[in-house]
Amino acid sequence: MPAARYIVITMSCRSEDIIEFLLTRRSIRQFKPDPVPDDLVLKIVDIARFAPSAGNRQPWIFVVIKDKELKDRLASLHSGSSPLLRAPVGIVVACDKNQSPISYQVDCANATMYIMFAAHALGLGTVWLQTLRNVEEIQKLLDLPENYVPIAIVALGYPAEKPQPRPRKPLEEIVYLNKFGSKYVT
Ligand SMILES: Cc1cc2nc3c(=O)[nH]c(=O)nc-3n(C[C@H](O)[C@H](O)[C@H](O)COP(=O)(O)O)c2cc1C
Hints:
This protein has helices at 15-24, 38-48, 68-75, 83-86, 104-121, 135-142, 171-174, and strands at 60-65, 89-96, 125-129, 148-157. The chain is of the alpha+beta class.
């Protein structure tokens, strides 16, 4: 496995480009059969290490799933996990609740979003697949110790679709000034 690691990330993009980048990420559920090279997978999890975590405890681990049988088992956990059938790679983000008992779910959600954005930057597609109703089953399938809670499965691959943006709630409905109910946006 290549040993390159990000130490310092320099930014040379214009802010408009970064905003466009954020707004053009979509959940991808249809993937090309092409494999994702290991160096790209490693680059993505390397970047995920830079996600913020409470007390910088970084309680996450990343389990890369390439074995077809295991991937198919995870894909059949529930009706929403089927995109993993079509993705060449899955990444299970698991969090050590002993290391960060209060914030482990939030920490791992941050790392999951970093995975999704890193993949988007590299021209890859992702979708976050729910794990929280199947924690023990996933722990068993991956030999995870009981303190490692799977927070997300990210299906990863080259996109075979260009979905339209999903609708978002209007700002007026979700932004308040100082107190709940006091309008900020008119
Ligand atoms: C915690 C969480 C769980 C999700 N679970 C699933 C899932 O099991 N299957 C799926 O297809 N999409 C899942 N999604 C993806 C959402 O459906 C998707 O992010 C949302 O519809 C907005 O679409 P967008 O990501 O394209 O903006 C999940 C997203 C989150 C954050």
